[in-house]
From TrEMBL:
<feature type="domain" description="HAMP">
    <location>
        <begin position="237"/>
        <end position="289"/>
    </location>
</feature>
<feature type="compositionally biased region" description="Pro residues">
    <location>
        <begin position="1"/>
        <end position="17"/>
    </location>
</feature>
<dbReference type="GO" id="GO:0007165">
    <property type="term" value="P:signal transduction"/>
</dbReference>
<dbReference type="GO" id="GO:0004888">
    <property type="term" value="F:transmembrane signaling receptor activity"/>
</dbReference>
<keyword id="KW-0812">Transmembrane</keyword>
<dbReference type="Pfam" id="PF00015">
    <property type="entry name" value="MCPsignal"/>
</dbReference>
<comment type="similarity">
    <text>Belongs to the methyl-accepting chemotaxis (MCP) protein family.</text>
</comment>
<dbReference type="InterPro" id="IPR004089">
    <property type="entry name" value="MCPsignal_dom"/>
</dbReference>
<keyword id="KW-1133">Transmembrane helix</keyword>
<dbReference type="InterPro" id="IPR004090">
    <property type="entry name" value="Chemotax_Me-accpt_rcpt"/>
</dbReference>
<protein>
    <submittedName>
        <fullName>Methyl-accepting chemotaxis protein</fullName>
    </submittedName>
</protein>
<dbReference type="Pfam" id="PF00672">
    <property type="entry name" value="HAMP"/>
</dbReference>
<dbReference type="InterPro" id="IPR003660">
    <property type="entry name" value="HAMP_dom"/>
</dbReference>
<dbReference type="GO" id="GO:0016020">
    <property type="term" value="C:membrane"/>
</dbReference>
<feature type="domain" description="Methyl-accepting transducer">
    <location>
        <begin position="294"/>
        <end position="534"/>
    </location>
</feature>
<dbReference type="GO" id="GO:0006935">
    <property type="term" value="P:chemotaxis"/>
</dbReference>
<keyword id="KW-0472">Membrane</keyword>
Length: 552
């Protein structure tokens, strides 16, 4: 793995190592909170807002109830009291008016006025009875009632009798009722002032209650909003910071730097995303390391195959040259065999002439000995050539086996390279099939050369037999006539053997031609292998250049 240059930290601070399954996880509220899902965090903020609204609503309802109770109490105690004291004041003023009007009416009109006075007095007494339970100051009410009672007594006992007797209204009124009326009015005003003060105090208390309710609602609302905003900012910061680290790692990946890590911990969506990005970066680092190693191995294998292909090409050229030598030798063998055939024909003619000319037997025998010696040398050369062909066949067989092994190794390396080695696998398979075909051809050549060697041994034996026969001809010239038939048969056998030798020589020539063809095919296959090796080397360089774009 190559050294990686230092890289500036991503936004938001350096990125720590991402936690793994085996790394310790510290507990606590912060860890518990970070492990919650984004939906749960948003719902928590929403829950705070809802709880704040519910709390503020509940407090507002409760305090509004208090304000309502206070208002009802004001109405029950103060508004009703003011209304009733006003009714009392109205009926008292009506009584006072009847008292004053009594002096202005004639005696005939006064009974009706007295009836009205009695009605107003009854209404006054009812008003006092209704007002007393809600009076703010019962003492002031008692003082007023006492004053009214005194005025009633003064009217009934002093003013009315004086007026009924024809006396003047004003002197009697001023004497008996004026001062007491003023005191009674003061007592009534004092009672009204007490009710007004009580109503004002109740109103102020209600205002205080309403103000307290408003302050409580505002405080709760501010606290709830602050808590919701704080929690929302915490959620936003947690998500934003994690996403910034993930984006930094992804940006580094886009720049070809696989050493960056998001370092985001937590079981929420952002934490799982960061862990997935870190795992993907780790997998990419391992994969690029493997590709780099495979490209290096592929380059080394390409060099080795190129070297081996060169050796195979040179061996194929040597085999082609040796095949040409063998072909020349086979042509020479064919010529010698033709010579032997000609000699056999001449021998037959000589044998036929033996019956006519015994004197020519010695000369013919001498010629036969010479021809037999030539044939022996030719056959020996054929055996030596067959031995050389066997050696060449062994070399070709060894080359084919080595080519097969190299093709097998190349196939294995191509399989390791995966998709990048498919083309090389096809070329390696073709080289392997060509090597197997060469091995089969060399085995066929070996069999044919063995047949030639066996035929050569038979030819040598036949020629030795001919030499023996010729010696017998020389030794037993007197028995030529009796041996003519035997020599005829021998000559026929020799002709057959020579024909077989000719066929063997033709087979040698054909086989050597096959060897030459196989050598040419091998040379062509090696050239294709060299092209494939060049392609592999280029692919290896491309892979190394591609991997070199990344830091891991």
């Amino acid at each position: 793995m190559r050294a990686v240059p230092a890289r500036p930290p991503p936004p938001g601070g350096p990125v720590p190592d991402a936690p793994t399954a085996s790394s310790p996880r510290h507990g606590g509220p912060a860890r518990w909170w970070s492990d919650r899902s984004v939906g749960a965090k948003v719902l928590a903020v929403l829950a705070v807002v809802v709880l704040t609204a519910v709390g503020v609503g509940a407090v507002a309802v409760a305090r509004i109830g208090e304000v309502r109770d206070t208002a009802q109490a004001i109405y029950a105690r103060n508004v009703v009291a003011l209304d009733r004291v006003n009714n009392t004041q109205r009926d008292f003023q009506a009584m006072r008016g009847r008292w004053v009007m009594y002096g202005a009416l004639t005696p005939a009109e006064r009974p009706a006025l007295l009836e009205e006075l009695a009605e107003k007095t009854a209404a006054y007494e009812a008003d006092v009875a209704a007002y007393r339970p809600v009076a703010a100051s019962p003492e002031r009410l008692d003082a007023f009632v006492a004053g009214v009672t005194g005025l009633q007594a003064a009217f009934e006992q002093e003013l009315r009798p004086t007026l009924d007797a024809g006396g003047a209204f004003k002197p009697s009124y001023d004497e008996h009722m004026k001062e007491q009326l003023s005191a009674t009015l003061d007592a009534l005003q004092s009672a009204i002032d007490a009710e007004t003060a009580a109503a004002q105090a109740a109103a102020e208390a209600s205002g205080d209650t309403a103000g307290s309710a408003v302050r409580t609602v505002v405080v709760l609302l501010v606290l709830g909003i602050a808590l919701a905003v704080g929690l929302g900012l915490l959620v936003a910061r947690t998500i934003s910071r994690g996403l910034q680290r993930v984006v930094a790692a992804a940006t580094a990946l886009a720049d070809g730097d696989l050493t960056a890590r998001s370092g985001v911990a937590g079981a929420d969506e952002v934490g799982r995303t960061g862990a997935a990005v870190d795992a993907a970066l780790g997998s990419l680092r391992g994969m690029l390391g493997t590709i780099d190693g495979a490209a290096t191995s592929l380059a080394a294998a390409s060099e080795e195959i190129a070297s081996t292909s060169g050796s195979i090409a040179r061996s194929a050229q040597d085999a082609a040259q040796q095949a040409q030598v063998v072909a020349d030798a086979a042509s020479q063998v064919s010529g010698n065999v033709a010579t032997v055939a000609t000699g056999s024909t001449e021998m037959g003619a000589s044998i036929r002439e033996i019956a006519h000319n015994a004197n020519e037997a010695a000369r013919v025998a001498a010629q036969a000995v010479t021809v037999a010696g030539d044939a022996t040398g030719t056959v020996e050369k054929l055996g030596a050539s067959s031995t050389e062909i066997s050696a060449v066949v062994k070399v070709i067989t060894s080359i084919a086996e080595q080519t097969n092994l190299l093709a097998l190794n190349a196939t294995i390396e191509a399989a390791r390279a995966g998709e990048a080695g498919k083309g090389f696998a096809v070329v390696a398979n073709e080289v392997k099939e060509l090597a197997q075909e060469t091995a089969r051809a060399t085995e066929d050549i070996a069999r044919r050369v063995g047949s030639i060697q066996e035929d050569s041994t038979g030819a040598v034996a036949a020629i030795e037999q001919i030499s023996a026969v010729i010696s017998q001809i020389n030794d037993f010239s007197l028995t030529i006539a009796s041996a003519v038939e035997e020599q005829t048969a021998t000559t026929t056998e020799m002709s057959r053997n020579v024909e077989q030798a000719s066929l063997g020589a033709a087979d040698i020539a054909g086989t050597i031609g096959g060897v030459a063809t196989a050598a040419a095919v091998t040379t062509e296959g090696v050239a294709q292998s060299e092209q494939a090796v060049g392609e592999l080397a280029r692919m290896s360089n491309d892979l190394q250049a591609l991997v070199g774009r990344f830091r891991y």
